[in-house]
């Protein structure tokens, strides 16, 4: 699991109802998980092994538009979902950060029902 960078966390606080970050709050140093991630990163010439079962691993990412540039339909960002085995993907546009958790739940429920299976890992 990971988290957004400090700049994007502050931007999200203006988009999500109930999310409050005190003005002037700054990280003094990178968190322990970020530091550990930087130490373990290494390049490999061999591609990562893909899962051999649908829904065993789902890759997910969130993108937030610059504050003054929503889409023509008013979306402020998108959430993507990619099944590691099949590479099936979906993209959900959101107008509020409050919608992200609901979109994720809906995606997992829909794909679980379609494939009669349970998702094991979601990588964000």
Task: Describe the secondary structure blueprint for this structure.
Layout: H1 6-13, H2 32-40, E1 57-64, E2 77-83, E3 89-94, H3 99-115, E4 121-123
Parallel strand pairs: 1-4
Antiparallel strand pairs: 1-2, 2-3
Provide key terms for this protein.
124 residues, alpha+beta, four-stranded mixed β-sheet, 3 helices, 4 strands
Would you write up a description of this structure?
This protein has 124 residues and is α+β, with helices and mostly antiparallel strands. 27% of the residues lie in helices and 19% in strands. It has one domain. The protein has helices spanning 6-13, 32-40, 99-115, and strands at 57-64, 77-83, 89-94, 121-123. Strands 3-2-1-4 form a 4-stranded mixed β-sheet, with helices on one face. It is globular and about 45 Å long.
How would you summarize what this structure contains?
The protein has 124 residues and is α+β, with helices and mostly antiparallel strands. It has one domain (6-123). It is built from three helices and four strands.
Q: Sheet with the most strands?
A: 4 strands, mixed
What percent strand? 15-25%
Order the strands across the largest sheet as they lie in space. 3-2-1-4
Give the terminus-to-terminus CA distance.
Answer: 6 Å
Flag low-confidence runs: none
The number of E-state strands comes to 4
Q: How would the global form be characterised?
A: globular
Radius of gyration: 17 Å
Helix content: 25-40%
